Amino acid sequence: MTSKPYKLYYWPIPGLGEASRVALTLAKLEWEDIAIDGKMFADMKGDGTLPWGMVPLLQTPDGPLAESIAILRYLGNMCGLIPDDPFSAAKVDEFLDGIAPHSGILDGTFSIDDVEERIRVRTALFEPEAKGTKSLTLLEEKLSQSSTGWVANTPAMNIADLKIFTHVFGMFSGNFDGVDKSILSDYPNLVKYHDLVANEPRIKDHYANLPEGSLRWTYQPGAFSSL
User: Fold this and answer.
1) Are residues 92 and 196 in the same domain?
2) Cβ atoms within 10 Å of 178's Cβ, excluding its own
3) Does 57 share its domain with 91?
């Protein structure tokens, strides 16, 4: 532990905490990435540290802040990823709120202990008319409607882009058995979008020097060029 003014508590994977990690870095804040484990999570729930009983949790100089989207909105003001124009800012919020019900594609699969069953269930999520397919198809359609390439049709990258980029492409890192990156070959707009965000100078610099075997390879330029 350090005395840095900002501390992000989350599991040692990209997941729901990744967009906030990027935002903290882009905002040039002094922060600490605290990787929790099962015991620490249970202790935090038990002592009331977690306002809603879930992580990520961001400790700020003004107190704790929970819920990944709330954290992202808070940090977005600090790293310049919320549009100045009120309508554009509202469209970013609209996108974040609208996409939320379609985001938890793998929810319900993490508690399946049997590997073969877990793979079977996850594979089925990307069959025609299944949950994963519908979610990715929706994103594919939304991207086709953007004249700028950014998800909320803003002139520049915004916090919704951090959310979509880290969440969607994090699923295809190889960390989740049964979810293969070849699935993305059916979504050319998503692959094009990946290239746009991954090559944005701040994002490219953030992921430039990853340790060997990092799950975050999926956020680098060209990660899906073989599709």
Assistant:
1) yes
2) 19
3) no
